[in-house]
Amino acid sequence: MNSARNPAAMSGRASSNVSGGSAGRSADPPKGRSRLVSATVLMAAGTAVSRMLGFGRFALLVALFGNATRQADMFNYANTVPNSMYILLAGGILNTVLVPQIVRAIKHDPDGGDAYTNRIMTLGILVLGLLTVVLTLAAPLVIWIYTPESWHVPELARSYDSTVRLAYYCMPQIFFYGIHVLAGQVLNARDRFGPMMWSPIANNIISIGVLAVFFVVFGSGDGTSAFTTEQELLLGFGSTLGIVAQAIVLLPYLKAVGYKFRPRFDFKGTGLGKTVRLAKWTLGFVLVNQAALVVIQKVAGGATTGGTGGGLTVYSYAYAAYQLPHSLIAVSLATAMLPSASRLVAAGDLAGVRDETLGTMRLLLTAMVPAAVAFFALGVPLAEFVFGFGKGTSDAYLTGWTLMAFAFGLVPFSLHYLCLRTFYALEDNKTAFLIQIAIGAANASLAVLIVLLLNSPATTAVGLAVAHVIAYTIGLILAVGVLSRRLSGMPIRSVAGHAGKLLAAVAPAGVLAYAITRGFELWSSAKLVQALALVVAGLVAVVVFLLLARLFKISEVSQILAFVLRRRQPAPAPIEDEASIQTVIRPLREFYGETGAPEPRIVPDSHQTARRAALHPKIVPDRSHHGRPITMSAKPGSEMTTPVAPSADTPDQVGPEESPSAAAATPAAADPGWDDSGTADTAPGASVTAPGTVLAGRYRLEEMLAADDPTITWRAFDQVLSRSVLVHLLPPLDPHATEVLDAARRGAAATDSRFLRVLDAVYSDDTRIGSYIVCEYATGQPLSAILAQGPLTGLEAAWVTREVADALSAVHGFGLFHERINPETVVVTPTGNVKIIGLVIESALRPVRGEPAEGHGEAADVYDLGRLLYCCLVSRWPGGPAYGLGAAPQLGGRWATPRQVRAGVSPALDHVTDQILGRPPRHHAPQLDTANEVVNALTKVLGTADATADLERRLRQPIPRVRPDETGEIPLSEQPTGMMAAVDRPDSPISSTPDNNPTEEQVRQGPALPMAGSISPTSPESARSTMIRQPPPPDGGAPLVPHVRPRNGNGTPSKPQRWIVLLVALVVLLVIAAIVATFVIRPTGLPNPINNPPQQSSEAPQPPADPVLVPIEDARDFDPQGDPSDENPDEVPNAYDGEPDSRWRTMQYRNDPKLGGLKRGVGVVFDLGEEVPVREVKLMLSGKGTDFELRVPEEEGVNRPPMGTDKDWRVVAEVNNAGEQIDVPLEQPVTTRFVLVYLTSLPEEEPQRFRGGIHEVEVYR
Asked: Which of 199, 817, 1168, 1249 has its CA 20 to 30 A from that of 1095?
């Protein structure tokens, strides 16, 4: 049962849960801080222990299977794919959809959310169980998708089958991952944070135990063989047992907090549909990441097809180390920034958001640049120390190389993460999703391209890391470009300069650190010496960096030190601002503890005085219905907000001690619904509510937006879900409270995202705080503020009205009606979408006396839709003046049509408007009586057109209007810098002069820029103004000048083109640098550590011996794509008979040197009789211009050559455009019995006739 349904039960709770004033704040913080410190220390300790055990698990894994072996990849595929599938199919839904619902129910349902939580747990168990069963049965398909094609060949059948069997045993982990998240979030909602942070320790302990048993029973793996059945059972079920334990250990804690699970199957009415729609961009984000991950894993797995290589395991271990500084520092800084940025967005202070983002970027760079240099300088020593145990000793350096490559991506990756949080603060998840598509596409495509270019199993993980770096660099450029436009410029040069100073300070430290570790390495390779080298190098590097940072005056270093050293910072003195400050610092303290959080930058608010003055406004309320302003919720954090728009015939009510936000309208004398019982001294709730008041221990009031009988509307902060909400306070002991709350509950049934949902409805019989309604909060501008600048285009007007009509049409079927649709209850968000305020609630709060002419229910909504379309087209309200708009003129006792008021209005839209408002419609047109009919009529006009982009641009580049004095001019000294009052006195005739209105063709195409409308400059319409929230002027005095984008000769905004050139150049340079850097890391001529691990030797290197000719025992032609599969087999002996005049020839191919486009290649397989280390191959070929490859079997130790496909052979050398005689020395000796000379492009024998041949082949060891 909802709390609001039992007023008696709520009486005590509503009183006890309201805190406000200094007394409340002075009494609560000590206890709250103590609890916060305790919880934070507990979580930090759990995380630290879990990470240490996790690295212990890594050490055992590399000791058993190594870093760069096929066995390591087999285990990692089977053990990590279930986690990937959980995140893909269930993780995103649980974290973005179900969990917030659980938290909300726990906090305000009378049963503590037990019933709702039981429903969600039941649904979660059913869905997770079904997914687990399906994916377990489909384990072969899932593993086939994630593994590379080279694993699907007969020669690796045993290894692949072993991986599939392991996956069967590991796939049940999906179910227990989900149970762990569900149970953990239930505990978190009850302020029990420790268990979920400590529970992974159980998993790590069991995993370490399982690996230890494996070592005792079976010893270390050989790196390439398939696991035995016993090994598969131990590894598979042992890994799953760890995840089971991780979930089960939470069950006693659930019982301890009083939660008992009882299955419930009454899922209907849980309201999950809209939440899923709201989370679609986040879910899309997850899908894009997982799609890119599939490509990465497939490419990485190809490196170990031959048994060893820098593949999936190397990449995974390096990525885990690379993420450590990001998760500790970048995530925490972004989390601390998000609440502050969100508050600035809500206040319309986009300049403040920009400054907050830039300041956090500088702090982030101060930590990430040194970390990146450390990874580059110490990547190999770090990897050899952490991952160089047992079998991993010989290949840990591959993880080090990959970590060095990742180092270049630490800064762009972390900065991009910060930009994402800024998009979330701007409530623009769509842009974040679109940028992630670009990143995912770039990462996947570049991974394939770079690995193909490198063509070396040893450097596959390095290539993947380079692709990751380039992709996130592209993503950062795109994100910064979009933010720069959204936030009126981002001075990136200053950030780049800061990064340059940091690099200058940390580079010498990195060089010294590398030199120190190199010196210790020459002394000894013992583990103790490695640890000592890293400690000494780290200490020296830190000291050098801090000294140089002080020399370069990098002030952010001290702030990072405060982060790391947990230095206590002094709390701000003024008690009255403590609640606001806690909004910023609480999330930071949750990550770092009470003593570790640096004090946030307090953003000055230019409206602080106005807000305090608005606490006790002298309000003359307005209870009229149509033709008057309604201000219940029309101010959700917009840049341009109008708390109450004065009526046309009433002077401003703002006195010398009042803020403009406290102004209200007097009623129209002729309105029969007017009731003047409200007075200035009895404003509801004004005597006891103030900023900082906390309702129900959850909703902290922050800013009063409007005061309109019978409610006061506040912007509040939900301390549970960390988001802004709207709170509508009713007067204490209001006799109509029950009716209003019932209406709010009925309105909560609307799940369409275009309605601002009702989140809570709480009854209170307290004499200080009345009942209240909590609603969703949306950033945007009320339509009245937009129309004050002029009418919309035909496309925009039709689209806005259709959106409202479409939303209403859906709820009309449930018997829900708005009955108060007008320009104040329709809001346009910064992304150009439409939000509707006050479904059902508006009519309950402000009932109409008498019978309205337009009727009730759907009839009233349809009539208001017609008036909404009318005012969007001409900026006049039928039945006005109201909402800052003039009255629509009447001709012959009926409203003039929009085309009669304003030239250029679309005839089609003019006709639709008359079909709604006409009584009867002109020209015998049918009346539109339902919202669905309005939707259909407007859809015929719009087709597939969408005005979202136009509205977004209109809000991004508003045209501010100011109120002139009697002369029509505003003295410079009196120009307002924060808010401007709204007046509308349209008492002059309507101008019918043609203007720049769109033609019929333009209506359908949708012009890009807002039109000025038909208002004459000398008309009183030109005096209309809106309340524009702006950040304070930089110099504190001069008014802000709106940012105007330069325009080209056609009048359209000019688009900067230089960034495109810079982006392309940067990508090209990064690709070249990545390839060059990879070859610098592994210079040509060094022994390949995959085939020949480095040996410690004190002897001087000996020059290589002269090559020795290896006799060829046999040979056969190789033509797997032929039909039949042979290519002059009788001539094969000529290729090694010692006679240069004889030869083996290919068939003659036409028109294309690449074997006529029919085959990938043909060749000859030479059998050496036994495995020998091949160093060089000499060939005599027919003609000039042959392309060929030298290949050896993928599978080692084979006694018969694989003849089925060329994919069973790996390339060890490649030559293009070869001459008639060529010597091919191999970069590293390859031990093999069979050598394939594979011709892929043939010389021209006759015009458009191509044939190749081999005269002689000699193989040397």
From this structure: 1168
Q: Are residues 379 and 251 in the same domain?
A: no
Query: Where in the sequence is the domain holding 390, given as residue range(s)?
Result: 296-491+1056-1089
In a domain, 244, yes or no: yes
Are residues 1084 and 1229 both part of a single domain?
no
Round to whole Å and give the CA distance between 321 and 312.
14
* This prediction's pTM: 0.45
Task: Check: CB of residue 90 under 8 Å from CB of residue 174.
Answer: yes
Report the CATH number that the domain containing residue 1167 is assigned in CATH. Answer: 2.60.120.260
Same domain, yes or no, for 252 and 302?
no
3-class DSSP state for residue 1245? strand
Tokens of 920: 């009867």
Summarised one tens digit per residue, pLDDT across range 1134-1185 is 999 888 889 999 988 888 899 888 888 999 999 998 999 999 999 999 988 9
Three-class HEC string of 885-905: EEECCEECCEECCHHHHCCCC
Residues 270 and 342 in one domain: no
pLDDT at 293: 82
Amino acid at the residue 1248: Q
**Element of type H or E holding 1162:** strand 1162-1181
Q: Find the helix or strand (DSSP H, E) in which 1117 lies.
A: strand 1114-1118
Residue 1055 to residues 478, 481, 955, 957, 1020: CA-CA distances in angstroms? Answer: 15, 12, 19, 15, 36
The per-residue pLDDT for 566 is: 43
Classify residue 433 as left (phi > 0), alpha (psi -120 to 50) or beta: alpha
Q: Distance between CA 936 and CA 233 in Å, rounded?
A: 62
Task: Residue 164: name the closest of 102, 229, 115 by CA.
Answer: 229
Burial 571-599 (b: 16+ CB within 10 A, else e): eeeeeeebbbbbbbbbbbbbbbbbebbbe
Q: Tell me if residue 79 falls in helix, strand or coil.
A: helix
| Three-state helix/strand/coil letters over 116-159 | HHHHHHHHHHHHHHHHHHHHHHCHHHHHHHHCCHHHCCHHHHHH
Both tokens assigned to 1036: 């504190």
Query: Residue 926 has what DSSP assignment?
Result: P
Burial degree of 956 (CB within 10 A; 0-12, 13-18, 19+)? middle
Amino acid in position 483: L
Cβ atoms of residues 835 and 780 within 8 Å: yes
Tokens of 842: 């508006």
Amino acid at 456: S
Measured CA to CA in angstroms, residue 584 lies from 356, 460, 588, 610, 1055 at distances of: 12, 44, 8, 22, 36
| Total domains in the fold of the chain | 3
Q: Write down the residue that tokens 């009713």 correspond to.
A: 730
Three-state helix/strand/coil letters over 482-509:
HHHHHCCCCCHHHHHHHHHHHHHHHHHH
Residue 62: inside a domain, yes or no? yes
Query: Which residues of the chain register pLDDT less than 50?
Result: 1-42, 44, 96, 563, 566-687, 960-1060, 1062-1063, 1066-1067, 1070-1071, 1073-1103
Tokens representing residue 1085 in the block: 């001529």
Task: Please identify which residue in the block is written with the tokens 């708009």.
Answer: 885
- Per the document, the length of the chain is 1261
pLDDT at 347: 67
Say if residues 216 and 149 touch (Cβ distance below 8 Å): no
Residue 253 lies in a domain: yes
Under a CB-based contact definition with an 8 Å cutoff, are residues 1234 and 1177 in contact?
Answer: no
CA atoms of 222 and 238, how far apart (whole Å): 21
Q: Clarify whether residues 1061 and 1143 are in a common domain.
A: no
Angle at 435 between CA 429 and CA 439, to 5 degrees: 135
Contact call for residues 580 and 601 (beta carbons, < 8 A):
no
CA dihedral (100, 101, 104, 110) in degrees, to 10, reads -160
Rounded to the nearest 10°, the torsion over CA 978, 1022, 883, 671 is 130
Cβ distance 378 to 542 under 8 Å?
no
Amino acid type, 919: R
